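Problem 12. The chain below contains 122 residues. Write out its predicted structure in token notation.
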Amino acid sequence: MKIPKRMRELLPIHVTRDFTRYVVYYITGCSPTIGLPQEAEIDCFNDENERAGIIYFFPDNVPLLPNQNTVNGIYLYYKLSRFADVMKMLKEEKPLYLYLNTVTSSGYIGTGFEPVGEQEGI
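Solution.
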């Protein structure tokens, strides 16, 4: 979706939301017809239990929706093949945040500054 220039001037281009907690849903029987097109999702929350966003995982053969900033936080869309990588990051890294560029719809899960050679997960 192309955002009109007038609206772009009013919107923040770079949106970040910190999160410290998450809930994982690994879904069976997913189907767009029943309102569950995703195969997994991770709901992210801050220390005040406010939703920072949702990370959705779709079948690898399905085109992804554009990432978006909503009243319920940042929505990021990944292929299901990235699920294990994302879970490892959530388990081993902190602090974590969600990022979205509202003009390009590009987004990511980011970490704070990490010490070199920390060897988490070893």
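Discussion. The CA atoms of residues 45 and 120 lie 23 Å apart. Students who got a different answer should revisit the alignment rule from Section 12.3.
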